[in-house]
Amino acid sequence: MEVSIIFDAAFQGQATGAVWIMDTDENRRWFDRQSDLDAGSAVFTPEGGELSRGAILRSIWNVQEHYPDWSRIIVAGAPSINELKDELRDEGNLTMTEQGFVLVRA
Asked: What is the reported pTM?
């Protein structure tokens, strides 16, 4: 299963399936207009209320717990993965993208 975690404060792109998107007014409007998202999709507030290394990691781990059959986690709107590599090394393979990174289960 592919899951997207979106930290972009004003996401305007396409996403389907399971999506967790950071709570902002713009993102809530985007979320409310979607009709083909997984039932477990949600608008969320990062732990601590801000976008930090720890909040990103906890969000990834929360998604893994919520979707134990995940195969890919697409993270958009997050800063560089360089500081996350060590913590996520055992979770899978990381690949940079224009929007953030993808974690593919090993």
From this structure: 0.92
Q: What 3-state DSSP class applies to 14?
A: coil
32 in Cβ contact with 21 (< 8 Å): no
Q: What is the CA radius of gyration of the chain?
A: 13
pLDDT digits (tens, 9 = 90+) for 15-34: 989 999 999 999 999 999 99
How does pLDDT run across 30-64, given as a tens digit for each residue? 999 998 999 999 999 987 777 788 889 999 999 99
Please state the domain extents for the chain.
Answer: 2-105
Q: Which residues, in sequence order, are CB contacts of 39 under 8 Å at separation 6+?
A: none
Long-range contacts of 68-72 (CB under 8 A, 24+ apart): 69/1, 70/1, 70/2, 70/3, 70/105, 71/1, 71/2, 71/104, 71/105, 72/2, 72/3, 72/102, 72/103, 72/104, 72/105
